[in-house]
Every structure is written in C-alpha cells, then in structure tokens.
Write a structure and sequence with these properties.
single chain; about 475 residues; alpha/beta; Arc Repressor Mutant, subunit A; four-stranded parallel sheet; about 5% strand; globular; Mga helix-turn-helix domain-containing protein; Mga_HTH
C-alpha cells in the first residue's frame, strides 16, 4: 500500500519531490535528473519547488548554477511534519477516517465538506483503490474483513501520518479513549514512555470505534492465569464494563478484554501471565522455541538467560501474527553489513530463521516485516547476552606513557564500543590483536594504533574500522576451518 495515495494529488507529488530531494542530500543533483526521477513535467517541478520554498523557507532550494539544484539537507523531522500537514488537509484521508473508520454517512460527510456528489464519489473511488491490495471489502461504506487485519490496517495508516501528533478522530471518541487510557494506567500501574502512551492511545481509539460500530474480535486469543485473575480481578471487571458500555453485544467484551491485554503484553507495557490459545498459537510457540534452541546450540547461553530470551522472542512473534503492521522504521537492510562483520555467526542464524522458518514463511512476510523482525531479534539477543558469549573478542592491550590515569581514561572510553566485542587485556601476550599507546611497541607484531594526542572523533572512527577489519579476518578463518 502506498500511504501517499491518501493525500490529494498535488500534495502527494509535492511530497514525492521533497522525499526525492532528501535521498540526494549533499549529493550532486540537477533539475533534469529530478524530472527523470519524479516523472513530472518541467512546469510542474518548478511549481512544486517554488511552493516548497514558500512552505519551508529553510530549504532555500535554488538551481541557478548550471541546472544544479542546491538546498539545505532535508531531515526526517521535516518530512514527517509535511506528511502530517498534507494529511490534515486531505479530503481522501478525511474520508477514510470519518466515513470508513468512524462510519459517518456519505450524505453527512458531503454536507460538512461542502463538496459536489461527483467529487464525493471520486474521493471514495480513490480511497477504495488505496485499500484494494490489502484485500479488504467495503460494504455499505464499512471496512469488512478479518477483524484483527482491519484494525492493523487502520493502525498503519493513521500512525504513518499522525504518530506523535493529535489523532484525527472525533472529539467524542477522543474523550472516551482518554478516560480508558487513564483507567488502564491507574489500574495496572503502567509506567509508559511518551511513544508508548501514543501507541496505546491509537490502539484504544481503534478498539473503541470498532466495537461501537459492531465489529468485534471473534477469536479468543488467550485467558488470564488464575494467579493474574486473583491479582487483577477488580481491574479486569472494570475494563469489561468500560468496553461493554459502547456496545449491546454482550458476548464479545470478554474477547476484547483479552485482545487488549495481549496488546499490552506483547508491547511490553504490562507484565501479566496469559495462557495463549493453543489452537491459534502452537506454531508461534514452536517457532520461538526453535529460535532459542538454535541460539543455545551455537552460543554459550546461560540457563538464567533462556527464559528472558524465549519470553522476548514469543512477544515479537505474537505481535507479528496478531498485530501485523507495515513498518516504516528500522526496515533498512543496509545495517545488516555491520552485524555481518561484528557478529557474523549470529547474523547468519537470525537471517536464516527470518527467511526460512516454516511458521514465518506461512505469514508471507514482506521485506520490511523481515527486516523489522531481524532487528527485533538482534537487539534482543545483544541486550540480554554479553558480547563475549557471541564469539571470540578482539583483544586490546592499552599502555600510555602518561601513566595509569590516562590509560584508565582510554579504557573507560572504550566502553562505548562494547558491541564491537572487544576485551581489554591487563598484560601484553601472544593473543593481543591491537596495541593502543602513544608510542610504538617494538616487540609487537600485531596491529598498533599510536595516539600522540587525546583521541578525536576521527581517531575513534579509525579505531572502530580497524576492529571491524580484524573481525572480518576472524570470520574468514572461521569460514575456512
């Protein structure tokens, strides 16, 4: 799904120009090349560049020098601000929220927006085309399909344009969500970050609106353990009552409560013992256990670490199968090369799991989904295991002529490179791979780094490059033998 298709045509094209310019930050780019990249006419391109300069004067776009375009570097922050601005004024996006999500009548929407009937149906057709590839049915201007999938699509589209901003729902829905969010924080003692609060708020918005419009979850995802039931009995009763208050379908709030608890659990907002439906999630548990088993066979994983690893893997996989989202951050595979160099064996293990595990293959993950899961697993492992557990460290001997204080300072500074899997030696020996000092050590045959002055950012960058080069040599040896 192309999210930009929810914007009005000119705003979509203008934003496309801005994003293309961003991809060429600090690079040579001509107006002719930009025309080729965007497919716009010269007239339209010049029009959009003028409008972008007006809307974002800090860009200072100019093409006075031999057709070369010059401009200030475009940040992700600027892109998000412009996306949000364009979404706020887009009739297509407004139609999606007010008619398809909140289920306002076409007549009321037309009257409020003061548009002709032909314009209304043109907008409707454009929005339906945007949603077509997501395999959703639109019946009587209502989103129909597997309910969890419908909710994930709504979450995706809204968060793309509005995450971190005030959500575009009606005031009535916003007040109800605010009250329920406050109850959840109070009942369970949730300690949430700013973005966790925004994520929870959007999730509850969608849950409340869908229940109110008689679209409830059919699957019973889990049950609360007896111990958790005793601990949170009053809180769970209050949540059910709150969800029931917006619908007359008395058989569904129980499933919705468990849906909400599952979201809190997999989003790491609430620690609660849940018993997941075996019929629905047996394969998910098998996949999580298989990943842990592969990890334990290849690396020295302590028994005390296995439970935390399994718990985290299960949350990631449950989130992927229940709250499926099309991620747009942490999906660039360019960073794979870093992990392939520093943690070669771990990189290969995770990549093989993400691409070959039978359960994940059944989910038909997109490349973005695979990349997001790769980083989820990688960061989980690196946060729970020590680098030394993941392979032989690069041994470094540090000895500066200025004395112990200076040597200790450098040792402490090296802590920022913890993820490079390095070990500082107290004595120089045959296993030393780097000597770091302000003078050359004549008897050393290994790599030597000489800093005559306190290290600069450039010195540290070169140090990291040398460590990675040595890591590549180690990886080649492991491959050969």
């Amino acid at each position: 799904m192309n999210y930009l298709d929810f914007l009005d045509d000119e705003d979509r094209e203008r934003l496309t120009v801005l994003m293309t310019l961003q991809s060429y930050n600090d690079q040579y780019l001509t107006q002719k090349r930009l025309i080729e990249l965007t497919g716009l006419s010269k007239f339209l391109l010049e029009k959009y560049l003028t409008e972008l300069n007006h809307d974002c004067p800090e860009l200072a776009i100019s093409n006075e020098l031999y057709d070369e375009l010059t401009y200030q570097a475009i940040s992700n922050d600027m892109i998000q601000k412009v996306q949000h601005t364009y979404a706020k004024r887009s009739l297509r996006f407004r139609f999606f929220i007010e008619v398809l999500v909140e289920e306002k009548t076409l007549k009321k929407f037309q009257e409020e927006q003061h548009i002709a009937k032909t314009t209304l149906y043109l907008i409707r057709n454009k929005v339906l085309n945007c949603l077509k590839q997501e395999k959703l049915l639109i019946q009587k201007n209502k989103l129909i399909g597997p309910e969890m999938h419908v909710r994930s699509i709504i979450f995706d589209i809204v968060s793309y344009f509005y995450f971190g901003e005030k959500y575009p729902f009606s005031r009535e829905n916003t007040e109800e969500v605010k009250q329920l969010s406050q109850l959840l924080v109070s009942y369970f003692g949730l300690d949430l970050t700013f973005f966790q609060k925004k994520k929870l708020s959007l999730f509850i918005h969608i849950v409340r609106i869908r229940i109110k419009n008689h679209h409830a979850i059919k699957e019973n995802l889990c049950s609360v353990s007896d111990q958790a039931q005793q601990l949170y009995k009053r809180q769970l009763t209050m949540i059910e009552q709150t969800l029931t208050s917006v619908t007359d379908l008395s058989d569904r709030p129980f499933k919705e409560t468990n849906y909400l608890l599952t979201f809190l659990f997999v989003s790491e907002m609430l620690k609660i013992e849940l018993n997941f439906n075996k019929e629905l999630f047996t394969q998910t548990k098998i996949a999580a256990q298989a990943l842990l088993t592969q990890l334990s066979k290849q690396f020295l994983v302590k028994d005390s670490q296995k439970e935390a690893l399994y718990d985290s893997f299960l949350k990631k996989l449950l989130s992927l199968s229940i709250f499926r989202q099309s991620y747009t951050t942490f999906v660039d595979t360019a960073a794979y090369s870093y992990f392939a160099e520093v943690y070669s064996s771990l990189h290969k293990l995770i990549l093989r799991f993400v691409r070959k595990d039978p359960f994940l293959l059944s989910l038909e993950l997109s490349k973005n989904d695979q990349a997001k899961l790769y980083y989820d697993i990688m960061f989980t492992v690196l946060s729970l295991l020590e680098p030394v557990q993941l392979g032989r460290p690069i041994n470094i001997y540090i000895d500066f002529s200025h004395g112990l204080a200076y040597t200790e300072y450098i040792c402490r500074s090296l802590q920022r490179f913890r993820d490079l899997n390095i070990a500082v030696q107290k004595k120089f020996n045959n296993e030393t791979q780097i000597v770091l000092s302000d003078y050359r050590l004549q008897k050393a045959t290994c790599q030597q780094i000489v800093w005559k002055q306190p290290p600069t950012p450039s010195d540290w960058a070169k140090f990291a490059d040398i460590v990675i080069e040595l890591r590549e040599i180690e990886n080649e040896k492991n491959t050969l033998f």
